[in-house]
Amino acid sequence: MADPNFRTAAALALIADDMREVDHVIAARLHSSVPLVGQVARYIISAGGKRLRPALLLLASGALGYRGRQRYNLAAVVEFIHTATLLHDDVVDESVLRRGRATANESFGNPASVLVGDFLYSRAFQMMVETDDMRVMQVLADATNVIAEGEVQQLINTHDASLDEAGYLEVIRSKTAKLFEASARLAAILAGSGTEMERACAEYGQALGTAFQVIDDVLDYDGDAQEMGKSLGDDLREGKVTLPLIIAMERGSEAERQLLRSVIETGSTGELGAVLEIVRRTGALDATREAAAAQARIAIDAARALPSNSYAEALLQLAAQLLERRA
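The structure assignment produced for this chain is given below.
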């Protein structure tokens, strides 16, 4: 079986020069007269990550033949919005580790993390106004609003053992997939590709983002903690009811359901070993991977509507690698 990380690297190599241009934009637009703003923002952005949202915008732009520099500006915008959500998420979740190092809130404190997250949101909106395109602004404003609603809904769902698959999917389609969707949609808008192509790009982005998050939730119970840069069971500690737990609750015995309900409601990781055993024994991980695979196949089908070229092929590879992701 092909290494999924190799596939991702091959897809991203196609836009390596473009990503360097985006990095230049990010560095320039992080400037602030308040030193702490730039310090915190650079800290979290320099932590790395796959940069999938800007990459998606750049790949879709390439597939649709758009070569204007505005793609660099908007790729930086979606990365700023994503980074702002990470800063706020880590405060809400009381996280201490992200991508293998201390979170910004652990290093600089909660107030600085929240306020710099606000700075990144506002800077992103300054940059999107510079496009002088109401459609672009509408897509990004709507996406940011939906993401915020998803964050609040996830907070409401915390420690709720009655959450079902539909409620779970509603949150991740808002909280995670919406920015993927917007990133791909923006490429079609920049390229002037028309309504049908915009719809295909949006469908690809939403399905890819959903699959990505579902697999991420699998890895919280079945991943390599060192490779992921976080501890196994973090979702459980934070009271997040994800699909592996939902399926295990449906398939487990009454005693197993009682145990899972208890740990969900308390957020205790003292029974993590028992929880992992239940999740694996009930086949919840395989079922969750299949749910992610179904979304990846939707993304692949949507990508086939794009012109046939190396960029479209890279988008297909990104969706295919989610079928094999392990970190």
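Interim note for the steering committee: The chain is about 75% helix and 0% strand. The two ends are 16 Å apart (CA to CA).
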